[in-house]
Amino acid sequence: MKKNTRILIFAIAIIFIGSVYFIFSDSSHTSSVLNQESSAPAAEISTSEVAKHAARTSCYTIVGDAVYDLTEWIKQHPGGASAILGICGKDGTIAFRGQHGSDSQAQEALATFRIGVLAE
Q: Is 0.90 topped by the overall pTM?
């Protein structure tokens, strides 16, 4: 019985350490992406251009004053594809902020899909 308990504790410790490593390695990737974006000039994208990308195969959305290509995120979104498909081709600011508020993890994930700024 003691041997089984030790194995279980060891397995839990390995899972915990792996999870912590994954979280921090993913955050450093996000930070490097954010730093790259800030150094390059942002493309200006109009609302009419965003509207052309309103499908599962090409999904752009607006959040705030930025435009995001969420095509690859559709199949990965923890809340399901329908949450993303509902904002393809339009302004998703209210939906995003209503669901995620000021959650920094959600904002960092969104930032990795930024392709430009909304044209005036």
A: no
Report the alpha-carbon distance of residue 36 to residue 99 in Å, rounded.
Answer: 27
Q: Locate tokens 């450093």: which residue?
A: 28
How wide is the angle at C-alpha 25 spanned by C-alphas 108 and 109, nearest 5°? 15
Considering only residues 103 and 8, tell me which one the structure prediction assigns the higher pLDDT: 103
How would you class 47 by CB atoms within 10 Å of its CB: exposed for 0-12, middle for 13-18, buried for 19 or more? middle
Per the listing, tokens 């969420």 go with 70
Long-range CB pairs of 36-44, under 8 A, 24+ apart, other chains included? 37/111, 37/114, 42/66, 42/114, 42/116, 42/117, 43/115, 43/116, 43/117, 44/116, 44/117, 44/118, 44/119, 44/120
Quickly tell me which residue has 């329908």 as its tokens. 82
Q: Is 109 in contact with 26 (CB distance < 8 Å)?
A: no
Asked if pLDDT for residue 97 goes beyond 80, the answer is yes
What is the C-alpha to C-alpha distance for residues 69 and 88, in angstroms, rounded to an integer?
9
Q: How far apart are the first and last CA of the chain?
A: 68
